[in-house]
Amino acid sequence: MKRLLSLLVVIAAVAALTPAFPARAATPPGIFVIATQIGEFTTLDPSEIYELVPSEYVANTYERLVRVDLRDPAKFNGKIAQSWSVGADGVTYTFKLRPGLTFHSGNPVTADDVAWSLQRTVLLDKGPAGVLADLGLTKDNVMRKVRKIDDQTVSLETDRKYAPSFVLNVLSAGPASVLDRKLLRSHEQNGDFGNAWLKNNDAGSGPYRLVKWTPNESIVLQRFDAYRTPYPMKRIVLRHVPEASAQRLLLENGDVDAARNLSPDSLDALTKAGKIKVASWPVSALLYLSLNTKNPNLAKPEVQEAMKWLVDYNGIQRNIISTTYKVHQTFLPDGFLGVLNANPYQQNVAKAKALLAKAGVPNGFAVTMDMPNDYPYVEIAQALQANFAQAGIKVKLLPGDAKQAIGKYRARQHDIFIGEWSPDYMDPNSNARGFAWNPDNSEQSTSKMLAWRNSWDIPQLTAQTEAALVEPAPAKRAKLYQSLQQAVLDHSPFIIMFEKVVQVATRPGVTGPEIGPINDLVSYETLKKQ
Question: Which of 237, 258, 236 shows the shortest CA–CA distance to 247?
Fold first, then answer.
């Protein structure tokens, strides 16, 4: 078999740092090469990024006022902010900034940058603006709600009282990244806040700076030595390797230091052979199916329920994703406030057929399924195709480039979409907004979350999601989210199937990345090589 993605790709990526590789395949000292999947990237602008792996890039090149503690998600660490306080009104948050911080450009980090960055995300009005909208920040009010007090102090006013942990969770998320105002203003075109330029460049102050992004090939990052505590590795190379078999080959041959998407069989075989180490990290990404209710068959509640009874959850988990996912059928991942530990569905073809007959489609129907052309989506989709065929539902699979498949999904042009969803921050509202909230189902909506993408008009659930968001009592809030999960479980166009367990495979003598519960909390601080 011809070797895929040969060592020459890495040589080209790191040529500026080292003159040549040793004769045998091995990554150079000081350079950490990771085989992963970066097909989701369409931009490098944190105010536009809304996908999983791109969020990881933002987490390591940009800073926020605060960050969730990786080891204790209930705690927050000051980053650009050295301290913060909540006013007596319960809606005014004041942040004191650390002195002496600099951007990758050399420009100082100031209160102007912090306030402008939050304003910019809202005013650009891309997908991530919806995260800051959770605090009541809109295009009409953000200029007065987010203000510089002095060169080292920023004030933010929310639209109502929230639990402080909720506000800090939102401000720890990628859309709240602090950007280099002076640099971006120098590249501004037609009032775009530097968005066109930032699609391929970097304006951050995080531990790594961008060297080069080659779409569907690689991202090269260089250590930012002016960071307050520089990270160990000088350079990081993320290589796009969509095939799990190719990742295994590269790892075995020493062409990469770590692999992020190995199949269970490969993980098992390499571990038994003593060729790799494997670290397991439970994360909050959910693998699910979306049924577009614009399709008249998929809009029928009996069809939606029937399809939930046709999925062989345990068989798929056991035979395809045994070490990388676990069965999970509710929209809140484990560890979140109010998680409902319920997996009521298992394959029951007779029950599904009865529901299809009740829906008026006793012989099934034809439908298409879009998906990223990466492991494990295609393998799972093939199994689902066989599951649904048992009741006469004929599924045509449409694998494609990840950004194309996701773009089609976002435009409501799919029948069925299979993909992953990860929370934006460690609060249950992040997922409730995705699966149980759709304030405007029109084509002109500015809130195009998951329910909207499937044309699921749910005023009652939307109102319940809003109520849960502002409930101050944790116990009562947890019950509200459990009720929402039950409603989505029982009657919705979402078939939530699995929760992810990340397996990071590394060569002996190598320490891989620290994986947080969401991609936005993946850290390269731990990367080391002997």
Answer: 258
